[in-house]
Amino acid sequence: MKGTLAALAKLNQSYRNYKTKLNALICIGIVGFTPQVFSDDYSTHFVGVADSSIQNIGRVILEEICFTQKLQCDIEMLPAPRAERSMREGQVNGEIMRVWRYGEDNPDFIRVPTSYYAVKTAFFTRKDSLLKLADTADITELNVGVLTGVKHTQNLGLDPKKVFYSSTTEKMMELLIKKRVDVVIASYIDGMATIKKMNADNLMVQKASIKSQPVYVYIHPNSKELAPIIDNTIKMLTKTGKLRVMIADAEQNGFN
After folding, report:
1. Which of 124, 162, 184, 208 is 20 to 30 A from residue 175's alpha carbon, by CA?
2. Which run of H or E residues covers position 207?
3. CA-CA distance, 208 to 226, in Å (whole number)?
4. Is the distance from CB of 58 to CB of 117 less than 8 angstroms?
5. SS3 call for 182
6. Which Gene3D superfamilies does the record associate with it (predicted)?
7. How many whole angstroms separate alpha carbon 57 and alpha carbon 36?
8. Higher-confidence position of 99 and 32
């Protein structure tokens, strides 16, 4: 009997030793394993502002971010008001490119901390108008064309009766050609690309720009886990120099 009990005690001790070693190996495996944040079939739906060369830059960059993180990324380009509305209604994961003010107007949205581009806002006029514009004070008495729903052209203290809204940059330039407006306010990239596309030789950009504003990716609160992933990827692309190359290529394509 004593021999049997001794054998059982020895067997239990061997089992306990084995279990201890097994748990140690499991812990080592867990510490050394970095799980993939998203599965390969994780899909995201973003929106951007349609008919905009500068938004296309944002689209290129976000597509690269999605590819890097193995995300299935669908980017839908919509008129600015529809894009904003789809975010407010929680129909999408985020927006690809908006200025700081966009976050102030929509405090529930999550602004990815690192900016990845800057939008330069400029004045566009007809060459035959002979206007020389230095800042917004010079256009207070003029009829001005701006894009509907685009934040960087809003809140400039203009007389609402003299502001004409259009859904696309091309439509704004048409108003300028037809002398319905005296000046168009748009991003430098969009304005120059549109003038080239339209072969509008009688239009020009004024030398003085209004200002340059950083732009950000915005995330809907329902998809908050995406914010640090996108932020870290932007930082990585910046550090490696790949972001600068991507922007240069996208800007070049915007004029072709």
Report:
1. 208
2. strand 203-219
3. 38
4. yes
5. coil
6. Periplasmic binding protein-like II
7. 28
8. 99
